[in-house]
Amino acid sequence: MDCNTLSITSLNSGSNGNCYYVGNDEDAVLIDAGISCKETEIRMMRLGLSMRKVKALFISHEHSDHIRGVCVMARKYQIPVYITPATLLNCRFKIKDELYRNLNSNEVIQVGSLQITAFAKIHDAVEPHSFIVACGDTKVGVFTDLGIVCNNLIKHFKQCDAAFLEANYDEEMLHNGSYPYYLKNRISGGQGHLSNKQALELFIKHKPDNMTHLLLAHLSKDNNSPQLVQELFETHAGDVKIIVATRFVETPVFTINGTPSKKVDTNIQLNFFEEQIPYPTAG
Predict the structure, then answer these.
(1) What is the SS3 assignment for 55?
(2) Fewer CB under 10 Å: which end of the chain, C or N?
(3) 3-class secondary structure for 106-126?
(4) 75 lies in a domain?
(5) In the predicted model, is pLDDT for residue 270 greater than 60?
C-alpha cells in the first residue's frame, strides 16, 4: 500500500445532504452521512468503492443534512461513529454503546492506516468541527458549514494537498433573492456559511504549494451557480484542479499524492494560528 496516496470523492454536497469519502487501498472514512444508507451504497457502487472498506463515520455537527444516514449505516455495517457528546444529544437519536466513539478537538484518531483530526469551527451548531484526514505525508481537509474564515481554518487549510471547501453563496444573488431577511442573515451573519468571495480569499491568500485538488462544496441551490463559482476559482487556480461538488450526484474519485518536499512549515506560526473557539448556541 502506498502510504502517501488517498482517494477522495464527494458523494453528495448541499443542503439536501452531505457525505464525503476519503480512503486508501485498505481503509476509508466518511465525513458526515447526510444521505440515506441506500443512496450512499448506490453512489459508492457506481464509483467502484466498497462500504466494507469504511472503518468509521465522523460527524461534523447535528444538522439533518449531515446525519440523515448515520443510524442505518452504522447499524448495518457495524461502523463506529465519532461524534461529540453534545452533538449526539442534539441529534436526538441513539448509537449503540459499542459503536459510539467520543470525538475531541485536536486529538489525532487512528483508523486503520488513516489519521483523522477534528478541529473547532464557527457554525450555528452546538459543537461543530471540521476535519483533516491524513495518510503518510498526504492530507485532505473537509471544510464546510463555516460561518467565517477563522484562524483554525487557515492553519489547517495551509497543510492540505486537497480540500473540500464550502463556497455556499454569491453575495449579490443572496441579497437580491427571495429568501426572508432572517434566513439571509442566518446564512451570511457569521455563524452560517461561507460566500464565494470568502472562500476565494482563503484560497488566494493561503493556498499551499502542494495543493493539487480543490472541491468546492455545499453550494446553495438558489443563491449560487456552479458555472459562476467554477470560473471564479479557475481564474486563480494555477495548477490546482477545481471541481464543483453537487447536490445531485457523486463526483469522480480523485487520487491525491502528497509530496513531502513541498510541504509548508506551519510550526513557525503555530501559536498565532491556534484559536479557542467558543461554541455558539444552536439556532
Answers:
(1) strand
(2) C
(3) CCEEEECCEEEEEEECCCCCC
(4) yes
(5) no
The percentage of the chain sitting over the pLDDT mark of 90, rounded to a whole number, equals 89
CA angle centred on 147, ends 204 and 211, rounded to 5° = 30
Residues 6 or more apart whose CB falls under 8 angstroms from that of 144 comprise: 13, 18, 60, 130, 164, 165, 166, 217, 218
Complete DSSP assignment for 120-167: E--SSSSS-EEEEEEETTEEEEEE-S-SS--HHHHHHHTT-SEEEEE-
pTM of the entire predicted model: 0.91
Please check whether residue 93 is in contact with residue 71, taking contact to mean a CB–CB distance below 8 angstroms: yes
CATH of the domain at 31: 3.60.15.10
With respect to residue 275, please indicate whether it lies within any of the assigned structural domains.
Answer: no
pLDDT tens, residue by residue, 79-114:
999 999 999 999 989 999 999 999 999 999 999 999
Residue 180 domain-assigned (yes or no): yes
Nearest to 149 by CA among 126, 166, 171: 166
Quote the domain boundaries for residue 238: 5-261
- Strand segments, DSSP code E, in the chain are 5-12, 19-23, 28-31, 54-58, 81-83, 100-102, 108-111, 114-120, 129-135, 138-143, 162-166, 213-217, 241-244, 254-257
**Total structural domains in the chain?**
1
pLDDT band at residue 2 using 50, 70 and 90 as cut-offs: low
Q: Is residue 280 part of a domain?
A: no
